[in-house]
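Suppose a colleague, Dr. K., hands you the sequence of a protein chain of 228 amino acids and asks what its three-dimensional shape might be. Before reaching for any lab equipment, you can write down a predicted structure in token form. Begin with the sequence itself:
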Amino acid sequence: MRLLLVEDDNHVAAALSAVLARHGFDVTHARSGEEALQALVPEGNGFGVVLLDLGLPDQDGYEVCGKIRKRTSTPVIMVTARSDVRSRIHGLNLGADDYVVKPYDTGELLARIHAVSRRTVHEDPASGGDSSLRLGPVRIELPTRQVTVDGSVIQLTRKEFDLLALLAQRPGVVFRREQIISEVWRTSWEGTGRTLEVHVASLRAKLRMPALIETVRGVGYRLVAPAA
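The predicted structure, expressed as tokens, is then:
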């Protein structure tokens, strides 16, 4: 996914860009509001998410968010040290899709990025209600929550489907265990790790493709796209 990072502090931007790159993101760094707005022309310019720091040197970050929303529907995550509820509500009212308060946990930030981008896939009106993911013989129909392998329907539980859809939207990207638990089970890691392992094993068995979901030892899981 292409991600636009709007951050005037070069040291912060460099460190965060390195982390995002390790998780499969193609990061473009904009140092000001005007640079960010230019990068989004035309109509979002292919970016999947905008990570917008509010402390910019040339324009108020809230103002930049409003301008972005007028130009494109690209998801915007605001990043700021302002933790009061009024600031968060103001940002969301201007069209931000999410709001992260500094200092933040990198895992949480990654989870929020994936969450807003996934919502966009589900809600994209250009899909005409026919959004699907194709991975070799595997086809995942997002609106109907149906999975087929070589045309045969595979019966999955709700959580099995959610887990597969999450991994399939970023083939090759490693998802941390904590992130998967947060997004699929909407809870914390404690006590849920074994549940995740069971669901991964079940998916491998039902799809009859044990190599489809790869375990990255000590980190999490990633989906390895099969040959067509």
